[in-house]
């Protein structure tokens, strides 16, 4: 009789375990699913949403565990990704910690703010025009959004993205510069970054960056127009391998063929090597350079030598056109 009772109790316990497992077994999400939890959502709202989306099986069990773990008030808004069978505890932990889905964004060196805006819009992070208006028109951040690979939440703001990229620039520049960026030295910093941005666009190889930076500074010191095609391209907004004579006459403060000194600001967002070159220019006898067509430049000391280089490296059908310096 006693053994029979024990057998019944064990059967009930086993049945209870099976029922609990069936109740708590997470549903299978066969295809990765994104679930957006809105701002201000309560634990009840979250539970219902997750059940509707098929991420959890029972909203009451979700609410019981959030109360037990004392995280009902810690569930964070955002977009979350779920796939396969995610244990309920893991679902709760992910939302309580705010482990939202992140989007990998790679910004190449030399990208302009408009280029960055295109990338962000393609990644479905923020509208292109909204980012341009904030970063370019309002904050004047051209040159100070460091090109790198970032991980941004799927739903974020233009302010958050721009701030993250600017902080990265600030950290990199201050380490190279040896002192913090302040209101007192900001004008000087902007000038250095402007030079770096021209170097970034004119040099494909690191071995040439310091030489080109040195030529820019030498021309500035001698009050000779920089005559950088890269600044003209920025002014026209059109990317071209060769500029025509009419391009070189475009009326813009960024046209360094007709305006002496540096343009009003950076023409792109330079990378580490170009910033380093602008801070450590190489002193040479060169005053001119022209593209050789393979990504490298030919450097000249005199204008006559430069003219010969132009004839050598520019094809006959582009003799009315010019390249850098």
Q: What does the model show?
A:
There is one protein chain. The chain has 3 domains: about 25-95, Endolytic murein transglycosylase (Dna Ligase, domain 1), CATH 3.30.1490; about 100-175, Dna Ligase, domain 1 (2-Layer Sandwich); about 185-320, no CATH class. The radius of gyration is 30 Å and the shape is elongated. The N and C termini lie far apart (about 105 Å). The protein has 12 helices and 6 strands. Helix 5 (about 115-120) runs antiparallel to helix 6 (about 130-140) and helix 8 crosses helix 11 (about 270-280). The relative contact order is 0.09. The protein has about 325 residues and is mainly α.
Indicate the mean pLDDT: 89
Main sheet? 2 strands, antiparallel
Number of separate domains: 3
H/E topology pattern: HEHHEHEHHEHHHHHEEH
Radius of gyration: 30 Å
By DSSP, the count of extended strands is: 6
- Please estimate the helix content: 40-55%
Shape from CA axes? elongated
Low-confidence parts lasting 5 or more residues at pLDDT below 50?
A: 316-323
Percent of residues in beta strands: 5-15%
Q: Number of helical runs?
A: 12
- In the sheet with the most strands, the strands line up as 1-2
User: What separation lies between the terminal Cα atoms?
Assistant: 104 Å
Q: Quickly give the structural class.
A: mainly alpha
């Amino acid at each position: 009789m006693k053994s029979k009772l024990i057998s019944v109790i064990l059967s009930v316990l086993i049945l209870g375990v099976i029922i609990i497992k069936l109740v708590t077994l997470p549903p299978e999400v066969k295809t990765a699913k994104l679930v957006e939890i809105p701002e201000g959502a309560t634990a009840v709202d979250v539970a219902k949403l997750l059940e509707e989306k098929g991420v959890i099986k029972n909203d009451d069990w979700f609410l019981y565990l959030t109360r037990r773990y004392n995280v009902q008030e810690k569930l964070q808004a955002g977009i979350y990704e779920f796939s396969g069978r995610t244990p309920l505890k893991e679902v709760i932990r992910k939302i309580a910690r705010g482990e939202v889905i992140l989007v990998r964004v790679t910004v190449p060196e030399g990208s302009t703010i408009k280029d960055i805006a295109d990338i962000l819009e393609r990644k479905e992070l923020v509208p292109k025009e909204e980012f341009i208006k904030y970063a370019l028109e309002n904050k004047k951040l051209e040159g100070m959004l460091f090109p790198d690979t970032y991980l941004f939440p799927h739903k974020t703001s233009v302010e958050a993205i721009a701030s993250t990229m600017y902080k990265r620039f600030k950290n990199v520049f201050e380490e190279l510069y040896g002192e913090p960026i302040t209101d007192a030295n900001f004008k000087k910093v902007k000038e250095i970054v402007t030079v770096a941005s021209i170097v970034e666009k004119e040099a494909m190889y690191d071995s040439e960056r310091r030489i080109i930076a040195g030529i820019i500074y030498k021309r500035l010191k001698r009050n000779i127009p920089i005559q950088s095609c890269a600044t003209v391209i920025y002014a026209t907004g059109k990317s071209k391998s060769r500029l025509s004579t009419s391009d070189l006459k475009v009326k813009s403060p960024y046209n360094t063929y007709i305006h002496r000194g540096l343009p009003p600001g950076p023409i792109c967002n330079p990378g580490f090597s170009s910033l380093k070159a602008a801070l450590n220019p190489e002193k040479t006898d060169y005053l001119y350079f022209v593209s050789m067509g393979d990504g490298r430049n030919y450097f000249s000391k005199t204008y006559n030598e430069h003219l010969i280089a132009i004839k050598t490296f520019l094809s006959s059908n582009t003799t009315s056109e010019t390249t850098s310096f």
